[in-house]
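Handout for the seminar on molecular recognition.
Each group receives one record of this type.
Step one: identify the two inputs.
Step two: read the structure output and locate the region that could contact FE2/S2 (inorganic) cluster.
Step three: write two sentences on what you found, then compare them with the reference statements printed after the record.
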Amino acid sequence: MTDTVAVTIQRGAAGETPRDDIFTVPYREGMSLLDALIWIRAHADPTLAFRYSCINANSCKECVVSVEGRTEYACTTRLTGGAVSVRPIGNKRLLRDLATDTVPPKEKFAAQD
Ligand code: FES
């Protein structure tokens, strides 16, 4: 049984050349990818950008990311130790790191003059 997980995250803002950062995160059985991202922001890099709202209710859909090339919700993706690679989803406009523009166009507020 491993006691850490290596989380590789594609970083960078829209228009920048992306880079991969690797974080070593303490592993505990049952932890989610979202748990690891929250740990990284709290303990390793407070600038890491990602979205979440409901945490483990799987209702807000804001935590969607690409995990090993598959589109997944970070809050329901269980880690098993070892290593995992995370990228922003490719079909939404990138804001920064794992945060993409997830709001449907019809739900955006119109600009006010
Ligand atoms: S944090 Fe809400 S669905 Fe994942």
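Reference statements: Residues 52-55, 57-63, 73, 75 surround FE2/S2 (inorganic) cluster (CB under 6 Å). The longest helix spans residues 33-43.
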